[in-house]
Amino acid sequence: MTASDIVRAIAAGKTTAVAVAEACLARIAEREPQVEAWHYLDPQLVLEQARALDRRGSIGPLQGVPVGIKDIIDTYDMPTEYGTPIHKGRQPQLDAACVALTRRAGGLIMGKTVTTEFANFFPGKTRNPFDPQRTPGGSSSGSGAAVGAEMVPLAIGTQTTASTIRPAAFCGCVGYRPTWGDLRCAGVMEASGSLDTLGLIARSIDDIALYRDVLMGITPEALPADAGAPPRIGFCRSPMWDQCEPETKQLLENCASRLAQAGAAVSDVELPAEFARIEDAHRWISSFEFARNRAWEIDHHWDMISETLRNNRIRNGLDCSEKTYREARAFAERCRLRLDDLFAGYDILLTPAVAGEAPPGLEATGNASFCAIWTTMHVPAVTLPLFTGPKGLPVGAQLVARRDDDRRLMMAARWVQRACA
Q1: Domain membership flag for residue 161
Q2: pLDDT over 90 for what percent of the chain?
Q3: Which of 4, 139, 143, 306 is flagged as catalytic?
Q4: Would residue 387 count as lying in a domain?
Q5: 353, 371 in Cβ contact below 8 A?
Q6: pTM to 2 decimals?
Q7: Which of 223, 267, 181, 201 is CA-nearest to residue 66?
Q8: Which among 60, 135, 321, 349 counts the fewest CB atoms within 10 Å?
Q9: Is 70 a known active-site residue?
Q10: Is 163 a catalytic residue?
C-alpha cells in the first residue's frame, strides 16, 4: 500500500498501525539479507510505538505510515552515526525537526537507513533491490532501496548533489528534492549549507505531496483528482547530454514525443552556454563548505576517513581559496536569475535524472552530473519511474520547475505519469 492508502485504511478501521508495522517488518525480514537497506532497526521498538499510535485515538495525516530515516538525521531514540565509525554509538538527545513533524503527524519511525560516509562518495553496504550486484545510488542509499524493495512506503533522504534523485531513479521510486530552504534541516548533519535539502522518496507523487505538506508544518492539501490542463514542457537535454547512455537518450526522446501527443506543449530548451560551468561551481561550493563542516573529524580522526573522501571532496575543499568559493557562489546566483527568466515560458523541464540503469558494482554510486546543475540552481525536482532500461532495470526521468513552484511541479508530474502510463 502507499502511504495515502494506509492512512485511509486506518481511518476506516480496516487495519491498524500494528498490522501495517508487522507487514513491513515481515517484508524487511524477507528482503533485507539481499538489500541491506537498514543501519539500525529495532522491531520491538517499532511495534511498541505502533501500539501507542493505535491507542492515541486521533488520526493524523500520516497515521501509522512507516517511514525510514537516513542515518544523518537525528532521532532521540535511535543512534545517528553519519555512515562512519568515527561516530559509532552517537545518540542524539532530540529529534531532528523533520522527525518530530513526522511523529506529530502520526508517522511511525521504522529505523535508520544506510547512508554513504558523511552523505558523500564512499558507499555503505546497501545493494540495489532490482539487482544486488549493482549500486542503489547514493548518498541516500538505504532510503531509496527500502522504498524500492517495498519495505516502507516513505523514506527521508537528503540531497547536496544527487543524493535523493539518483537513488530514487535507480530503485524505481518517486524522488523529490524541494526548493532549497523550504524544509527545515535542524538536526540534520550539514554537508554544504548553501546546497543541502531534505529529500523524500515514495511510491507515488500523491504521497510526496502529502509528506511535503507534513514537513512544511501546514495542513495537507491533496493534489486535485483532475489532472488539469496539460503542462508546458521544455525538453532540456542539458550540458551533460553526452554522458547519457544511448538507450536513455532514446527513452527521453520517446517520452517527449508521447507527452506532445497527449496534449502537452513540448519544445526543446537549450540552456545558456555558461550553464556548462555550473557543475564546477557546485564542486567548489560543496567542497569548501564540507571541509569546514568536518573540521573536527579531519583534525582528530583523519585516518578513519576513507581515502575516497579524503582525496576528493575534502582535498578539493581544503585547496579551494576564499576567492574561488565566493566567485562560485556569485556565478551560481547569476545563473539562478537567468533560469528564473527561462521558466517564463514553461511549467516544467524534462531532463535526465541519471545516465542510465544503475551501474554494476558497489564501489561507487553512479554519475551525479544530471542532478548537480539543478541542485545548485535551488529549484525543485522530481524523478518518476517512467522507464525500463535494456537490462530490465528502472531508469528515472527528472522534472524540474521554477524555484517555489513545488506544487505546480507535483501536479505536472502526475499529469506526465498518467500520460506515460
Answers
A1: yes
A2: 98
A3: 139
A4: no
A5: yes
A6: 0.98
A7: 201
A8: 321
A9: yes
A10: yes
